[in-house]
Structure formats: C-alpha cells, structure tokens
C-alpha cells in the first residue's frame, strides 16, 4: 500500500516529477520563443488597437478635465433648483484658468454639443469675467446673460461630468439623451444608422444564403469529380483569390453598368428594351452580385474540405437500405456536411458584415453598409470616437453570432479545412 | 418447398467503363435461393463490378440481371430491396446504432413498435444487445462490422450483398467473424453474395465459389471441388498451394496421360488436354505427394531437399524434383521419424489421379 503512494525517484534521487518538469522546461521555453514574434505581433496589431478603440469610443474626459472644481462642487447639487454660490465660485475659478490658457473656446464647442446656446454665453462670460469682483459669483455670472440663470444650462454642464459616455453608442443607434436625461430616438427623418445596420445585416444574410446555394453544388462536384476535372474546377474557384479585390470589383462595374456587357447581352437577346436598361449597379443588386462572387471561395473551401472526407459508400448505403436519392442525401449526406456549412456561413457572414470596398464602389446610395459609414467618420468628419463606437458594435455583433453558433451547433463542430 | 435455382440470374452480362475494355465478359451465373455464394478473384477481376451491378450502382453495358425472375437493370438501387454490407462498413457516423438500424425501417414506414422489435432481433443476432445508443465511432472495428451486418438484415431482405466486409479487420477477428456470418446465414436462410479476394475466407464460408479472373468466371463450384478439382491452371494456382510441371503430352489413353518434362516423364490425369503433343501444366497439391511412398503409386521420383521451414504444426520442405526447384511438400509434425535434413535425397510419390494436366497458361 505504502509503496503505491511513495514518491517515485529517478536514479539520482530527485523526485521523478521534478526531474520531468526540468527536462521539459527547455522545450517549453523553445516553443514559447518560437511563437513569441507572432504573439507580440498580435498584441501590437490586434489587442492593443481594439483596446484603444474601446477606450476612444467611450472617452469623454475633455470637459471633465476642463472643469474639475465645478464638477466636484456639483456632486452635492440635486439638479432641481439653481446651484449654490459654491458651484458658481468653482465654475468661475475653472473658467478663469481656461481663459488664461485660451481654452474656453473648446469648452464652448463641447458644451454646445450637449446643449445649443452655450457658445454665445461663454463668449459673453469671458468678456464680463475680466471685470468680476471677488465674492458673490452667482449674482455676477447670472447677470452676464439670462441663460446663466436657467437651470437647464447648469444641468447640461453636469451631464458632462462623467469621464465616460455612451453618447456615441446611442448616436450609432440614432438615439440621444434629451434634456431630462432620458434616452430617446431622433426624429424619424433624421435616422440613418438604424437603416444602415439593418441593411448591413440584410445584405450579409442574403450574400451568405446566395453563397451557400451556389457553393454547395460546386463543392460537391469538386469532392466527387475525378482528379483531372476537379483540379481544373478548383483553379476556377481559386482564380478570384489570385486577383486583386479592387480589380474584381472594377470588372463588376464594367459588367453591370447600364451600358455594360450584361445589359448589352440582355438587350441583344430581347430580354429588356434598349431604352429601359435595368440598373444593376449603384444599388443593392450591385452589392449582392459583387459580394457574392467575391466571397464565394470562402464558402466553397470549407464545404469542400468536409465533403472530401465523406465516403461515397455512405450515400450508396443509404440508397441500398431503401432511401430514395433525396432521402439518402437529406438524412445521410447533408447532416455530415453541417460542420462545413457552419464554417462557411460564419466566415462569409462575418466577412460580409464588415465589407467595405465593394459596397463603396458598386453599392451606390442604397447599397452602402455600416462599414462605409465608419470610414466616412474616420476620414471626413474625423469623429474617431464615433467611428470606434460603430466598429465595436460591429465586433460585438460578430461575437454574438459566434456565440449563438456555438450554442446552436457547437464550435468544435466547425471545420475550416 | 421447391428452391428457386435461379433466384439471381446474370444473363450474358457485359460491363465496360470506358468503351474499350470489358471488365466483365459474357457473365452467365445463376444463384439459388438461400445460397451463400462467394465471388473470389484478384483485384481488377470484375467481381466487385458484378456486385455493384446487382446492387444497382452500376448498369450492365449489355445483358440483363434477373432477381426472382424480374429484370432489374432499370430498377434504381433503393427499390431493389437488397441488403448490402460495405467494405468500410459505411455506418452513418452521425447516427446511433439504433438510428442506423432504424434507417431502412423508417424509409419503409414501418411502425415504431414493430421496428423496435426488428432492431432488437437484429442486434441480438450479432450479439450487440445494449449497444443501441452508442455512436459508431465508439465501437471497435469488429463491432462496427456487426452493426453493418445487422443493418443489412434488419429489413428482412431476400438477398444480401457483402463487399469484402472483413478486409479491415485483423486476422483473429476476421476468422471469428467468418464463422459468425456463416452461422447467421444458416440461421435465417437469406441468400448471400459475398465478394472477397481472400481464398480461405471463401473456402470457409461458401456453399459455392465463383472464381473470377479477367472479367470471367473461371470456375463455379463448391469449395472442396474447387480445391480438389480445379478446371484450369489459374484456379489451381489461385486456390491453395500448388506444385506445377510444364511439359508436353506424349501419350494419352485410358483416362491417363503421360507428360514429357525436360528430363523425365510423369503420369497425369488429363483434364484439359485432349491429344498427343499438346503443351500442358500439371498441377499437384503439396499434401498429395508423400515421402517414401508405398509401391502402389504410379509416380515415384527422387528429389533433393533444398530448404526446410518449420511452421509449428507442419514443416514445409522445398525440394528440387525433376528440374523443378520450387516443389513444396508439407510434412505433418507427427512424422518425426522421417529423415528430413537439408541436402538429403528423398523419394517422393503421388497418384496420377491427383496430378491434373491443365491448360499450359
């Protein structure tokens, strides 16, 4: 009995476990050093930017840092009546400091985002503050402009107190916090983001469906044809991969435009009248066609790799046991391809949801996606925190889909190749 | 009850895949009801093609196959009602054993309680009760094979096809499965067409064996007849071990013939030779030749022992006899008194009846 529990020693008298760890340590270090460059690369190019994006999207420190004393004094204020003298005095102190640093303009811009009307009264306050006397700042500030005695404006200032904000996220959902601090939607005619989100999901969904419908037979052919034909077909499938994305999108523009090849063909076979050529580009149709073609290989390859492993004798067995070809396919073959379907759909959907170049070029106004909006705010309005917020929402959406897939199908059931 | 002698009938069946080469040539084969028939042959001999045509996965290029009197060439596989066991089992990996067995019953719309009974019966037939809820991946090769056999029988087909079902198993398991399949066949009386390239498997299990080569049935007969009385030199060489002498018929009379070898003359049983001067190959089973024979044998010659290999129950002795240095003898272990040593000269004799003069191929 005791010999079973006794520690096993090596011939040198060192416990075996210790000796084993020592012997393996070198290998572990070697293995780690081998992956270290990639790890570092991932941290720098992936983890760090995403973290930065997250911070940027909720960051609202600017006003907080400009009015530190004011916000401290405001902590006790309930926001019902005008604040006490104490708050006014702190505000005056902060304000004078900002004027000395010539930063009061920035403050007025920021506060104006929260409530219209701050710009002029801050300008007036700056001029008036030079003549302020010590003490009783409440009276003096209120006398500068009647808005300074409006409690609404002080509430607006208080709303900027927290260092973090969800306003960018609300904006991405076409919502904002109103003067009462309630979250409400913007007017119907000013909503654009919700439409874009829905359109992004819609296009990603249908592109996935189209890809699946087209890729399934192709992958099946690839997996069952004799080698010499399947190689040729495989090259056809992979050919788009060897062509630049931009070139492919540009060629779709040549094909799909109103005076383009496809329309010419339709006219020549009499499908459409020459003076009534359909618009197949600069709308959703263009996005659908081009994105489906570009994302097709991402569906074909996982399906092919799964189908390749399914023995043809399984279908034969299904048939010999009395199943019609359809039953044999549906009950035997199809369930076995689900890992490939899952992998392909997930891949295509995730790529499609963040697609940028193609919808930008062939999508037109009705075919652009949320990614184009993100790019717009990155490049044109320079509202990076808003772009970050939308980017993160997109990322979260993808993670949710991933999680759902894991719940429903199981992620270990996925086969990428 | 009269047994249908032509339960399955291949009538002048040809098969070609590429329009240039016939893999099955003019096949004429009748299989009786309840029979266990094995198609035996080297790979590429057309035996699997025949099975696939019977199952419906290939169509004959010419000719017709009849099942119970009905032409079946135009009937798709799923309507033929033929059970099939595949080489790699072909169990559905995403279904449990129960679901695998239920598949043929469900597509036939058999009510669940009746189906459950059939499944229980089929599983107990292959002694796998209690395995119904396992996945095929959790079973050993032998168990998977049994499930495949049970699945092919569960819907009570009249005919079951087996395509090298034991090929993937190890030797011991293969032998025990051979007996198991044979007993199942005896118990339920289903007609079985079995394809294999393993001659011992064929000899163990079958009522009759069809030896295939080059797209043709070389011989169709019971295992013992196939072994004892091969009709041509391919069968003689393919089934069991065989000593051969190439020579020319020098005399033929009274059911015996004399065959002139390069340096001697032996007496043989003329099977496929008809006249003097024909080339022939004389085939003799190793166990039919005796050492130090009694005087009644009509072939007695001296040979020199060139190799002795100990095999446990017997000893293989290679002898240089009449210019054939590949002449094999099997000496049972009990005959220890014989003086079998390398280089010894010994006397070897056999009856002319056992030396079959076949085609010279």
Give the structure's gist in a few sentences.
The complex is a heterodimer of chains A (417) and B (361). Chain A is an all-alpha fold and 417 residues long.
Give a verbal description of the structure.
The complex is a heterodimer of chains A (417) and B (361). With 417 residues, chain A is mainly α. Chain A contains 20 helices and two strands. In chain A, helix 11 packs parallel to helix 15 and helix 19 packs antiparallel against helix 20. The longest helix of chain A has 43 residues. Chain B folds into two domains: 226 residues, P-loop containing nucleotide triphosphate hydrolases (Rossmann fold, 3-Layer(aba) Sandwich), CATH 3.40.50.300; 118 residues, OB fold (Dihydrolipoamide Acetyltransferase, E2P). Chain B is built from eight helices and 20 strands. Chain B is elongated. The mean pLDDT of chain B is 85. At the A-B interface, helix 16 and helix 17 of A face strand 6 and helix 2 of B.
Properties at a glance:
heterodimer, A: 417 residues, mainly alpha, MetI-like fold, two-stranded antiparallel sheet, 20 helices, 2 strands, 69% helix, flat, B: 361 residues, alpha+beta, Rossmann fold, OB fold (Dihydrolipoamide Acetyltransferase, E2P), six-stranded mixed β-sheet, five-stranded mixed beta barrel, 23% helix, elongated
Task: Give the topology, please.
The complex is a heterodimer of chains A (417) and B (361).
Chain A: H1 2-5, H2 16-58, H3 61-66, H4 68-74, H5 85-100, H6 104-114, H7 118-129, H8 137-142, H9 151-159, H10 167-172, E1 175-177, E2 183-185, H11 193-224, H12 227-238, H13 245-256, H14 261-268, H15 284-307, H16 312-320, H17 325-353, H18 357-362, H19 370-379, H20 384-408
Antiparallel strand pairs in A: 1-2
Helix pairs in contact in A: 2-20, 4-5, 6-7, 11-12, 11-15, 11-17, 13-15, 15-17, 16-17, 17-20, 19-20
Chain B: E1 8-16, E2 22-31, E3 36-40, H1 47-55, E4 62-67, E5 70-71, E6 82-85, H2 97-107, H3 112-125, H4 141-153, E7 159-163, H5 171-188, E8 191-196, H6 199-205, E9 208-213, E10 216-221, H7 223-228, H8 233-238, E11 243-253, E12 256-260, E13 265-270, E14 279-284, E15 290-291, E16 299-310, E17 314-321, E18 324-332, E19 345-350, E20 356-358
